[in-house]
Amino acid sequence: MSDELIPTLGDKTPLMVADTPCINLLAKKSEIGLAHTIPKGMKPGSDTANLSVLGYDPRIYYSGRSPLEALSIGVDMKDTDIALRCNLVTLSEDEPYENKTIIDHSSGEISTEDAAILMKAIKDELENDIFKYYVGTSYRHLTIWKRGSVASLKEPHDILGHIIGKHLPKEKALKEMMVKSYDILNEHPLNIERKEKGLNKANSIWFWGAGTKPALSSFEEKYNKKGAMISAVDLLKGIAVGAGMKVIEVPGANGTLHTNYEGKASAALEVLLKQNFNFVYVHVEAPDEMGHQGSIENKIKAIEYLDQKVIKPVVDGMYASGEDYRMLIMPDHPTPIHLRTHTDDPVPYLLYDSRVNKKNNYLYNEIDAICSGNVILEGYTIIDRLFDKGEEHKYENQY
User: Fold this and answer.
1) Please, which residues have CB within 8 angstroms of residue 251's CB and are 6 or more apart in sequence?
2) Are 50 and 235 in contact (CB under 8 A)?
3) Three-state SS at 372
4) β-bridge mates for residue 328, sequence order
5) What digits encode the pLDDT tens for the residues 150-185?
6) DSSP state of 30
7) Nearest in space to 372 (alpha carbons), one of 396, 392, 389, 394
8) Each residue of 304-330: pLDDT tens digit?
9) Full residue range of the structural domain in which residue 34 is found
10) Is there a single domain that holds both residue 207 and residue 225?
11) For residues 349 and 329, is the Cβ–Cβ distance under 8 A?
């Protein structure tokens, strides 16, 4: 959700331009500031960033992105296994494989149903005793490499529009499978049908995010809070599984601009008010996806949907219940429109407490967060602020 100043928006960010009346109302009664979610020297991935927001120092707990996704899918990794993210991507069609250009890291936000058909074709042709394939969500899938190595692999969303040759894996087996996958997928009947409909073909797999079996400590033991996760993304669900949190599945939640926002809000209220959970983490992928797509209009739309269809219903529901509560609103990392990938810049946060009648002049955006003077240098500690007792003095500028 966080971004940089965009000239076509009058040197404002999507967060500054978006119509977010509920967030703005909360901001006037909240602590606003900046949090560094990416430790220095680590890649600005959703894996490291979300571990930080949940209170797990990535320098201690991070073992790779794909192993966390493996937990979500239910893959029982051995200590010698390597997990790899296996994206379905769109490559250009007219050149030899190494000279192709990567057009879309998400194959037009392909549905899980279409992806499962294509992944079955991959599994039938490429799976063996060493490499196993597992279907995830949308374009995000998983490969387990028995007795493999933590290969250095390029994230596809970092090279959109680039010729892929110099970004292909150095490991011969991985590269060969990617080349063969194009032959399997490009003329697959489903991809021919997708092209006829004006949709991007999902015509190659792309390996990245290699890692080893993770070991997260229990969230409940760590914070004495019973926690739940609501997300369409296997990475987030995998972190939750590893941390012993409950994963809440919401029908129609698919990680796209048109996800089931209202269903996520309803599920959050159900978990907090009827199932006696102390904490729920509601993750919305759409602003990140729109950043990767370079769509200013849709990124603004995604932020407005978050405000109207998730945050407002949760706030209204909590108010109606009469329960005191605290709420933290923040991105995991920036995904600037002009870069179409992640950065390690600090992100704006909003920390609200229904018991505190605080007043300030800040709105919730990147610039006001800077002006607030509040800076959390170790992002993994922000959850400690969320779980604090909430006395008035705790909200004063401490930085």
Assistant:
1) 260, 263
2) yes
3) helix
4) 351
5) 999 999 999 999 999 999 999 999 999 999 999 999
6) S
7) 396
8) 999 999 999 999 999 999 999 999 999
9) 7-63+217-395
10) no
11) yes
Q: How many CB atoms lie within 10 A of CB 93?
A: 14
Spatial strand order in the sheet of 279-282: 246-248, 227-230, 279-282
Domain of 233: which CATH number?
A: 3.40.720.10
Q: What gap in Å lies between CA 55 and CA 18, rounded to an integer?
A: 29
For residue 147, which amino acid is it?
R
Cα–Cα distance measured from residue 33 to residue 373, given in angstroms and rounded to the nearest whole number: 7
Q: Is the pTM of this model over 0.85?
A: no
Question: Is residue 297 domain-resident?
Answer: yes
Helix (H, G, I), strand (E, B) or coil at 392: helix
* Residue 2 domain flag: no
Q: Are 324 and 355 in contact (CB under 8 A)?
A: yes
How many C-beta atoms lie closer than 10 Å to residue 61's C-beta?
A: 21
Give strand ranges (E) for 67-166: 82-91, 102-104, 131-137, 140-145
* 3-state SS class at 52: helix
> If DSSP codes are grouped into helix, strand and coil, which group holds residue 126?
helix
Tokens of 391: 């006395």
In 3D space, the residue among 4, 186, 227, 11 whose CA is nearest the CA of residue 95 turns out to be 186
